[in-house]
Amino acid sequence: MNERADGRTGLGNGVCPPWVLRDYAVLADGERGAVVDPAGRIVWLCAPRWHSEAVFSSLIGGSGYFAVEPVDRWHVWGGYYEDGTLIRVSRWVTGDAVVECRDALAMPATTDRLVLLRRMRVEAGEARLRVALDPRPGFGARRVRDPRLRDEVWHADADGLRLRLLGAHRAAWHPESGLRGEFRLRKGERHDLVLELSTREHTDRLDPEERTERTWRRSVPDCSALAAPRDARHAYAVLRGLTSTSGGMVAAATTSLPERADTGRNYDYRFAWIRDQCYAGLAVATHGPHELLDTAVRFTAERVLADGEHLHPAYTVDGGAVPGQHELPLRGYPGGDDRVGNHAAEQFQLDVFGEALQLFAAAAHHDRLTREAERAMTVTVDAVERNWARPDAGLWELEDRWWTQSRLSVVAGLRRAAQVLPGGSGQRCADLAGTVYAETRRRCLRGDGHWRRAADDDGPEAALLTPLARGCPPADDPSNAITRRFVEEELADDGYLYRFVHPGVPLGEAEGAFLFCGFTMALATDHLGDRAGALRWFERTRAACGPSGLFAEEYDVRQRQLRGNLPQAFVHAMLLECAVRLSDASALPR
User: Fold this and answer.
1) CB of 271 within 8 A of CB of 51?
2) Which of 502, 506, 513, 561 is the most exposed place for a label (fewest CB within 10 A)?
3) Average pLDDT of 95-99?
């Protein structure tokens, strides 16, 4: 590989050097995602599905990548997403040329086949470009078998996957380093590379670009009337790209990107969290009855009907069980250890039931509540009635305790369900909401008016802003303003918000600011009638993204860096909801 102007050298053994997280971009088609670095290398891709083993795993210290880059190492990089899509255009300016590379995962996607499109075009001058493809199945542990060139298309086999590559017939395949080649383009010329990975053999032409553009145009609604319209539309595109045809939406495209260096806090987020799915559906519902509302309702209802009170917090995108957590024998992204699977899927998290009820009620508001979802509402209410007094792991997936946020989220969900379900069912929800709220208020509301973090913990908790923003307690309850102010005083720094206090450790040293919390603070502030204050929180929090406009879970305020897996779905969901609520256009009644 080439050496960049800053002296960083791409290694010839299938491993690419890491960049800071803010510099990466992500492609996604709903069934899997690819991570692209600024040098033009795709360094992360699982196939055929989100939770499959990686074919390119250089991002987390494994092997395998797919690179297109200028031969001239004296260049600077940039790029952008085409509006309302996850079609990414990388842009390089060399001493003699301006080059663009347009990357996309083809849509509409199928679960057994991915097609990766890469189109190079020279905008000015003349450029020599280098292509390198080194697929390494099994998180870098193995190589493809029997690479062969037939009818100007490369073919190979890879652990149950079939590989085809179009557009590199003049390149050579080397046993130790994969495919290598160069080509020259003049101004206005273009060159296409199309990579297919599939579980079965295909013979059709590899040229689905127009269908991909049409699918994105059809999938992402107009957001021009919203606050920050470009960011809102991009947020919707991210949520669409992370959502499978099954309806399941992964929390993020990656695994093991550390939240804090060398602390063991790195996890696998390539699964569908029910809570995150509900947040995304609720955000979309504030804007309109779009496709992602229906998919969120469908997936959530299916899981509730299948598992009832034993609902898991997370599933694979097709509704399967999340595998237990184990480590990979890889070097890892700097500061992290590589892990796949997730133990949190076995926790009991009460607030998930409350968020599901709120999602179903939002669907009913748009007349999108299916019969299955209405049945799921009844099952959810049954689960709450039997389990609301149990300690649970809560929003942050910590130890089992009597978390205040979990109960208030359930109350919010029950109250909304009471407005939707007919007759006695609705009254049952209202009565149960009153019971849960009265006991939660007795155990978790301090005498000075602010809500405790938990029944046994008086500390500040940013998670409380979520039910507050959803109307629980009602906006005129004095505890709302008191709690919001207490959270801001104790957990805010430079306009960003942290989750809670880690005893004996200053804010910013224990973990980064949580971007989800910053957006919920904006929503809660607006709910209390302070539009100007809400806009300040919104603008500050949405500034914490990289050049690609993607958000991770955390933000290191001092170093101005992203932390954790990306793109973090529920952060983009909350940005979208803020953009609707804070726009001049009317939002749904609260």
Assistant:
1) yes
2) 506
3) 94
